C-alpha cells in the first residue's frame, strides 16, 4: 500500500531529527596535497576561527553540534588548553567532539608509534594517547579516535608479528584508562604513509585489536581507507553483526584516500551504507554510531564544502530511511531479484529534496543552506578579517 504524503514526510522528518554528523576542525584550515597548498583567504588559522566556522555550519544545517579536535593541531599544549576549548564551546554553542591523538608528526615516529621497535618511542606514544584521553574526559568527549601511520616501506625490514604484540599491549594499556562512558575507536587504512605494510590495514585487524583492547573499543570505518571496489556496506553489516561498529569518517574517493566531499563520486555507496544502518536499527541494533566527516578541501571553499557535505549526507540518510524494508525483506526471501533491486534503487533515485526542504522550514532552518551561505556574507566577512594571514602569492602578479 502506498504511504500518504504526510506519513512520508513524518518518516523523513523523524530520520532527519535523529541524524547528527560531526565536522572536523581540520576541514576549515588551509590544507593541500604533498605537492603544495592553495591557500584561501577564509581559511581558519586559530581554534576560535574553527569554532566560528563550525557554528556557521550548525546554524545553516542544524545537524552538526560537535567539532572533532586533533590534539596537536588544536590543543598544542595538551590538557593545559582545555579551559580555552571550554570557553570556545560556550561562546559558539558547539561542543568538542571526538578527540584525535596525533601519532604521525613527531620525529620520534619515523619507524612507528605504538608499533615502534623502540621501547621509548612506544612509551612516548602511549603517553600522548593517555593525555588525549584525559583531554577527552575533561571535555566530556565520548570518543577517542585512534589512527596510526605505522608500517614499513620495505619487505624484511620489520617483524610484522612483533609489532602486532606491541600494539596489543599498548591498546590494552590505553583502554584501561578510559572513563566508564568513553570509547576507543580504532581506524584502519591499507596504505599511506607506509608503502609496504601498514600495521592496522583493514577492518579485520581493527576488529581483532578492538577485542584485545577491551569492551569499550570499537572499529572506525573511514570510507576513503579501502581498496578500489571493496564492498564497504558488507564490512558495515559485519561490524553491526559483531557489535564492533563504532563510527565513520565520511569522505569520497576516486583513486586513493582523496578526501573528496561525501557522495561526490559515488553517492550510491553512502546510500547502501546508510541502508545497512537503518536496517540494523530496525532489527534493534543501535550501537551509538559516531557519524563524522574527515575531509580536507584543497580547491573548494571550506565552509561551502562542509555545508554541501552535510546536506548531501542528510539527503542520502533520508533516501535510505525511506526504503520499504518490510517489502524488501519479502522480495529477498522469495528471491525476486529484479523487484528487490528495483525497490532498492527506486529509493535511491527518489528526489527527497522537497522533504528535506520542508523539514528545514518546519525546524526554522534556512530552506537551502548553500544559498543561505552565499547570501549571508559570512565567508566574505571572515575572508576580510583573515586575509592578512592567508596571503596568496601569484608568481604572475
Ligand atoms: C588518516 O588518513 C586520517 O583519516 C585519520 O583519521 C587522521 O586523523 C586524519 O586522516 C587526519 O587528516
Ligand atoms: Mn580518517
List keywords for this structure.
alpha/beta, five-stranded parallel beta sheet, 397 residues, binds manganese (II) ion, 15 helices, TIM Barrel, binds alpha-D-psicofuranose, three-stranded parallel beta sheet, globular
Characterization of the model:
With 397 residues, the protein is an alpha/beta fold. The protein has one domain: TIM Barrel, CATH 3.20.20.150. The protein is 47% helix and 11% strand. The strands form three sheets. The chain has a five-stranded parallel β-sheet. Strands 1-2-3 form a three-stranded parallel β-sheet. Bound molecules: alpha-D-psicofuranose and manganese (II) ion. The site of manganese (II) ion has 5 residues, from loops.
Identify the CATH homologous superfamily. Answer: Divalent-metal-dependent TIM barrel enzymes
CATH fold-level label: TIM Barrel
Q: What are the low-pLDDT stretches, counting only 5+ consecutive residues below 50?
A: none
* Overall residue-averaged pLDDT value: 96
Structural class: alpha/beta
Which ions, cofactors or small ligands are bound in this entry?
alpha-D-psicofuranose, manganese (II) ion
**Global Rg:** 22 Å
How many extended strands? 10
Overall CATH class: Alpha Beta
Shape: globular
Helix percent band: 40-55%
- Number of discrete helical segments: 15
**Total number of distinct structural domains:** 1
Short précis:
This protein has 397 residues and is of the alpha/beta class. It has helices at 5-17, 47-61, 71-74, 82-92, 119-139, 160-175, 203-213, 232-241, 267-282, 302-321, 325-333, 337-349, 353-362, 369-376, 378-386, and strands spanning 23-24, 66-70, 95-100, 143-146, 151-152, 183-187, 197-198, 217-222, 245-250, 290-293. The protein has one domain (7-390): Alpha-Beta Barrel (TIM Barrel).
Amino acid at each position: 500500500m502506498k504511504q500518504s504524503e504526510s506519513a512520508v514526510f513524518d518518516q523523513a522528518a523523524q530520520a532527519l531529527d535523529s541524524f547528527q554528523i560531526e565536522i572536523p576542525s581540520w576541514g576549515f584550515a588551509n590544507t593541500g596535497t604533498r605537492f603544495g597548498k592553495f591557500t584561501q583567504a577564509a581559511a581558519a588559522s586559530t581554534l576560535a576561527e574553527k569554532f566560528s566556522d563550525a557554528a556557521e555550519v550548525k546554524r545553516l544545517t542544524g545537524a552538526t553540534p560537535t567539532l572533532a579536535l586533533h590534539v596537536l593541531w588544536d590543543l598544542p599544549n595538551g590538557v593545559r588548553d582545555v579551559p580555552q576549548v571550554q570557553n570556545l564551546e560556550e561562546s559558539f554553542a558547539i561542543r568538542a567532539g571526538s578527540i584525535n591523538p596525533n601519532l604521525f608528526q613527531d620525529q620520534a615516529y619515523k619507524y612507528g608509534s605504538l608499533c615502534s621497535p623502540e621501547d621509548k618511542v612506544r612509551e612516548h606514544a602511549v603517553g600522548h594517547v593517555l593525555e588525549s584521553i584525559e583531554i577527552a574526559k575533561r571535555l566530556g568527549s565520548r570518543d577517542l579516535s585512534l589512527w596510526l601511520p605505522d608500517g614499513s616501506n620495505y619487505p624484511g625490514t620489520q617483524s610484522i608479528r612483533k609489532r602486532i604484540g606491541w600494539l596489543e599491549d599498548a591498546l590494552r594499556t590505553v583502554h584501561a584508562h578510559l572513563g566508564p562512558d568513553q570509547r576507543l575507536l580504532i581506524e584502519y587504512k591499507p596504505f599511506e604513509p607506509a608503502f609496504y605494510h601498514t600495521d592496522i590495514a583493514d577492518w579485520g585487524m581493527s576488529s581483532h585489536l578492538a577485542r584485545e583492547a577491551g569492551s569499550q573499543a570499537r572499529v572506525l570505518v573511514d570510507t576513503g581507507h579501502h581498496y578500489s571496489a571493496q564492498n564497504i556496506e558488507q564490512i558495515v553489516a559485519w561490524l553491526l553483526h559483531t557489535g564492533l561498529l563504532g563510527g565513520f569518517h565520511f569522505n569520497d574517493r576516486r583513486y586513493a584516500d582523496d578526501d573528496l566531499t561525501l557522495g561526490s563520486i559515488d553517492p550510491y555507496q553512502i546510500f547502501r551504507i546508510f541502508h545497512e544502518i537503518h536496517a540494523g536499527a530496525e532489527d534493534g541494533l543501535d550501537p551509538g554510531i559516531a557519524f563524522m566527516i574527515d575531509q580536507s578541501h584543497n580547491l573548494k571553499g571550506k565552509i561551502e564544502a562542509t555545508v554541501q557535505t552535510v546536506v548531501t549526507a542528510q539527503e542520502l540518510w533520508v533516501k535510505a530511511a525511506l526504503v520499504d524494508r518490510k517489502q524488501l525483506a519479502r522480495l529477498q526471501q522469495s528471491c525476486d531479484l529484479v523487484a528487490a533491486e528495483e525497490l532498492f534503487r527506486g529509493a535511491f533515485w527518489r528526489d527527497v529534496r522537497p522533504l528535506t526542504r520542508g523539514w528545514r522550514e518546519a525546524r526554522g532552518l534556512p530552506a537551502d543552506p548553500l544559498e543561505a551561505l552565499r547570501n549571508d556574507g559570512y565567508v566574505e566577512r571572515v575572508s576580510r578579517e583573515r586575509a592578512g594571514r592567508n596571503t596568496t602569492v601569484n608568481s604572475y602578479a
